UniProtKB/TrEMBL annotation:
<dbReference type="InterPro" id="IPR032807">
    <property type="entry name" value="GNVR"/>
</dbReference>
<feature type="transmembrane region" description="Helical">
    <location>
        <begin position="174"/>
        <end position="195"/>
    </location>
</feature>
<comment type="similarity">
    <text>Belongs to the CpsC/CapA family.</text>
</comment>
<dbReference type="InterPro" id="IPR003856">
    <property type="entry name" value="LPS_length_determ_N"/>
</dbReference>
<keyword id="KW-1133">Transmembrane helix</keyword>
<keyword id="KW-0472">Membrane</keyword>
<feature type="transmembrane region" description="Helical">
    <location>
        <begin position="20"/>
        <end position="44"/>
    </location>
</feature>
<protein>
    <submittedName>
        <fullName>YveK family protein</fullName>
    </submittedName>
</protein>
<dbReference type="InterPro" id="IPR050445">
    <property type="entry name" value="Bact_polysacc_biosynth/exp"/>
</dbReference>
<keyword id="KW-1003">Cell membrane</keyword>
<dbReference type="Pfam" id="PF13807">
    <property type="entry name" value="GNVR"/>
</dbReference>
<dbReference type="Pfam" id="PF02706">
    <property type="entry name" value="Wzz"/>
</dbReference>
<feature type="domain" description="Polysaccharide chain length determinant N-terminal">
    <location>
        <begin position="3"/>
        <end position="94"/>
    </location>
</feature>
<feature type="domain" description="Tyrosine-protein kinase G-rich">
    <location>
        <begin position="142"/>
        <end position="194"/>
    </location>
</feature>
<keyword id="KW-0812">Transmembrane</keyword>
Length: 242
């Protein structure tokens, strides 16, 4: 016989296992909170912007072809900024105890579409260090790009600044706890239905009918001790009848 599950059965299962579901969700949220607040290292970010042009034209004017050429070279500039030629000098200037490859993992370089502005973002556990690395990287690039590509018009539009009360960009405890709540809820519901599926005990007359595939002819109602006559009452009734 094919088993069918109605919405009513689903709601009964959820109601029956509601405590388990809530405990699973609470446990997941608590674990996410503890990990986010106590175990994960806060990461801070600092950013600076660089404007890169070709050599200055007469009267400081640029034609359309020059601008298009600059846009095509933006990807090249992005690679150069994260190259060992630049990062090695940044490490030397700041006396960092790291390698160019490790420093490369902290730096993100990108540019907006059809823009000659290059954004340099640095992530570090120390907010002041993120600011120093971002500004030093921009300064070293401004110096070295003249030798590498004969570009003599590099301007730092906005240097990185250390905020009075810097906020880490990650981890985000509230977001992590919200995600954990959803995962915990889904896990709790899954465990509830799994337990219900594995529970093969017979509890109701419907379970017997489904198990034996036979109709129910009658039921024996439960009788409490209060409803059952005592032996003393039965004896007195018999004496009265005599």
């Amino acid at each position: 016989m094919e088993e069918t599950i109605s919405l009513q059965d689903l709601f009964k299962t959820l109601k029956k296992r509601a405590i388990l579901i809530l405990l699973t969700m609470l446990l997941a949220v608590t674990a996410a909170g503890v990990i986010s607040f106590l175990l994960l290292t806060p990461i801070y970010q600092a950013s600076t912007q660089i404007l890169v042009n070709q050599q200055k034209m007469e009267q400081n004017q640029f034609n359309t072809q020059d601008i298009q050429a600059n846009l095509q070279l933006i990807n090249t500039y992005n690679v150069i900024i994260k190259s060992p030629a630049i990062l090695s000098k940044v490490i030397e200037n700041l006396d960092l105890n790291t390698t160019p490859a490790q420093l490369n993992g902290k730096i993100t370089v990108n540019s907006a579409q059809n823009s000659q502005v290059v954004n340099v973002s640095v992530q570090d556990p120390e907010p002041y260090m993120a600011v120093d690395i971002a500004n030093t990287t921009a300064e070293v690039f401004q110096e070295e790009i003249q030798k590498l590509m004969n570009v003599d018009n590099v301007n730092i539009l906005s240097p990185a600044v250390l905020a009075e009360d810097p906020k880490p960009i990650k981890p985000d405890p509230l977001l992590n706890m919200a995600i954990a709540a959803v995962i915990g809820l889904m896990l709790g519901v899954g465990i509830a239905f799994l337990l219900e599926y594995l529970d093969t005990t017979v509890k109701t007359e419907q379970d017997i009918e489904e198990l034996l595939n036979l109709p129910i002819l009658g039921l024996v109602s439960p009788i409490s001790e209060g409803d059952m006559p005592s032996a003393k009452d039965s004896l007195q009734r018999r004496r009265r009848k005599r």
